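Sequence design from tokenized structure. All designs in this work follow the same two-part layout: the structure record, then the generated sequence. An example of the structure record is given first.
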């Protein structure tokens, strides 16, 4: 299960949960492209993956790596918030590393993620980020 939304400016919001199958990934890819196509200019991607409590199947991780490699060049930063699973962290690190973009980071806590994105967000975008990932 997943959601992909755009409520403010360049902020491209994604939320993932378990289970997440290869069929889910296909729907995700289609929705990802549709939402990005409706947005103008640069994009700032933020993904809350804490709801993914189970490790993704290998074909899903391979799909994410492929998607990152052909990712929209308009994405200027991508931030991924993951949970406590060490196995999932390893999968996320592999996808980030093989996706090959220095402006893509993985975070364990929302505060550091918000701080990193705040550097480039407008006030409206940052306010929306606080709704998407509210302070504790």
């Amino acid at each position: 299960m997943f959601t992909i939304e755009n409520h403010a400016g360049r902020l491209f919001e994604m939320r993932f949960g378990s289970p997440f199958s290869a069929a889910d990934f296909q729907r995700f890819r289609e929705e990802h492209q549709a939402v990005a196509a409706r947005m103008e200019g640069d994009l700032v991607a933020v993904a809350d993956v804490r709801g993914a409590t189970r490790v993704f199947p290998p074909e899903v991780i391979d799909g994410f790596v492929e998607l990152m490699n052909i990712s929209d060049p308009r994405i200027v930063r991508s931030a991924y918030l993951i949970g406590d699973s060490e196995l999932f962290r390893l999968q996320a690190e592999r996808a980030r590393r093989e996706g090959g973009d220095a402006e893509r980071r993985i975070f364990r806590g929302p505060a550091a993620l918000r701080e990193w994105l705040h550097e480039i967000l407008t006030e409206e975008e940052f306010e929306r980020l606080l709704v998407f990932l509210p302070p504790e």
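The chain has a mean pLDDT of 89. We note this feature because it recurs in several other targets discussed in the main text.
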